[in-house]
Batch of 2 targets.
Target 1
Amino acid sequence: MTAKLLSAAPVVDQFKRDLAERCQALKLKGFTPSMCVVLVGDNPASQSYIRNKRRICEEVGASFRLEHLPADIGRNEFLGHVKELNQDPGIHGIIVQLPVSEHLRNLDLPNLVHPAKDIDGFHGQNTQQLYAGTRDLSLLLPCTPKGIIHLLNFYGYNLKGSSVAVIGRSAIVGKPLSMLLTNLDATVTLAHSQTKDIREVTRQAEIVVAAVGKARFMDRSYFNSERRTVVIDVGMNSLNGKLTGDVDLDDVKDFVAAITPVPGGVGPMTVVTLIDNLISAVERTAKGMQ
Ligand code: NAP
């Protein structure tokens, strides 16, 4: 068996066509979808993520603005910028690009952006929908989990009743994903650094999501080739200067049925889902004003 590669490219192409149509429909109603990224300092990885966001935004016809603030900006001045954007009717989606400077990290960052403009889906009012059991992918939910569901749907994997192992319990990936999968009728095991035997969990699962943040953390010993496992590799690690996933693709490719590549898998799905959240946010505003 050689694993099928679950590339994001065809999913992203389909999404971009759909987003461009929705964007055009909004423009005809007088709304030009506009997002603003607030960047503090000059983190090179952040700059590269922002370039990708800008590119897709512009490709679908939405407008993009970067608010680039100095690394040593005062707390009040920083909060003032976000408040202004929250009140600006011309801006529909706001992202505070993480990481911010050390002295801003104890601010309540997930809840700074107004929930209706929170296209990252981190605000408590938006994540609360996950606890409440939502299955509605048009809500402003965290982008990486939502993007993973879109990718699995595109490739025709049935979540209802399937056993899924999610490795990693962060607030932006593992936890919201495990809730969304549960809401979509999967049976989820959420594992982390204190789990006694991760292999026991992953070898039983039909779908394994690796969100650990350690390059090539999972090799073939994590999989039972008879299970024909589908693997979603969320990891974006730098190894010898190369973007590398949490799963050792070369080692596992004959032991699993399908796997997302790194790069070209979950990463592009996250970005396109962010723009999907932007368009959804504007559609809600437009509806509210009719
Ligand atoms: P994170 O906040 O560092 O969380 C990592 C999780 O992995 C934690 O829950 C941790 O457990 C768990 N973990 C660490 N070592 C482990 C081990 N030896 N065995 C089992 N579990 C272990 O990371 P994150 O923000 O979720 O990101 C994870 C990876 O995904 C990173 O490489 C990140 O760059 C990438 N990422 C990619 C995208 C994308 O769009 N592709 C988006 C977001 C993140 P504890 O909780 O017990 O510490």
Target 2
Amino acid sequence: MTKKILALAGDGIGPEIMAAGLAVLASLAPKIGFDYQVEEEAFGGAAIDQVGHPLPDKTLVAAKQADAILLAAIGSPQYDQAPIRPEQGLLALRKELGLFANIRPVKIFGSLSHLSPLKPERIAGVDFLVVRELTGGIYFGEHHLETEFARDVNEYSRAEIDRILRTAFEEARKRKKKVTSIDKQNVLATSKLWRQVADQVAEDYPDVVLEHQLVDSAAMLMITNPAKFDVIVTENLFGDILSDEASVLSGTLGVMPSASHAVDGPSLYEPIHGSAPDIAGKGIANPVSMILSVAMMLRDSFGLSEGADRIEAAVEAAFLAGVLTQDLGGNASTQEMLEAIINHL
Ligand code: NAD
Ligand code: IPM
Ligand code: MN
């Protein structure tokens, strides 16, 4: 049956990397017998410009009807002081679709290991997942701003914590069977509840080791001993910050994909980085984060592991052949990077 994929290109480098992701999919699909159609809708700043809202009704309806969603990036400095921002569309989409589980894999490409700012012995063996809670916490509590006062509320229910912890334990079962739960239990009530629930959920997974880590020291360990992690699970804000920090291990944000899953309904696949306004429109963005997001979609939403493996192998082969975008210290354009990957598919 034909699978429906919704493509949300968004802003900045979004359209450039989305085109690359879809080109890889178009090249691979006939080779693996994948039958699909792509619908494109306005989202983010592009949608504000068109209809005055970052998540138009038509886009939301299309998202709910899709089998999977690809999102490139949203955001632009032009909306920094605007009453409605592109980011609100992204948060609303995550909430509307119930995309509570955001999976951000951190792996070092062998061919790129020399690009990491860390010493080779520190990044040897780095391969972990950040499981970020995506529909709760301070992102979705009350935000209140006055001239002399501001408040942001951080809230978590037991049920919200329980389900993301279970996601982390399930992921750990497929890997090295270790979960590191990251919180700020020495200060925050939400973190105290988080830690209690983590300990309770762990009882259902006796084959998986659970350790707790405070977020400040976890940030330090991510640089001094990143190979110690297998599955990290943490609340929305900590996960946002730690996953960008983790991207430095691999040398660039430009190779970092993610998947976001709901209890049921379509999953969404997007790079972890933003719209990179500083390089937008120059044809130099690294498309690998988007291309690897397509691979995650094939594996998670359509059970096409072989297709996903082929994309990942083609990316590695293109890197090994020395085709590197500027963020990786090379001089390949987006188009040249894309062509090298397609040639290796
Ligand atoms: P950013 O992630 O857009 O960029 C950070 C740095 O990484 C920049 O120097 C950029 O050039 C570089 N970079 C990012 N992706 C790259 C790629 N594929 N290839 C090469 N270089 C790349 O973060 P920012 O500048 O802080 O934010 C810009 C806008 O993006 C903001 O409006 C922010 O809210 C938004 N944002 C959106 C998403 C999303 O759509 N999911 C995620 C993060 C930030
Ligand atoms: C991300 C982004 C978003 C977030 C922004 C754009 C709202 O930084 O996907 O990591 O903070 O979740
Ligand atoms: Mn982020």
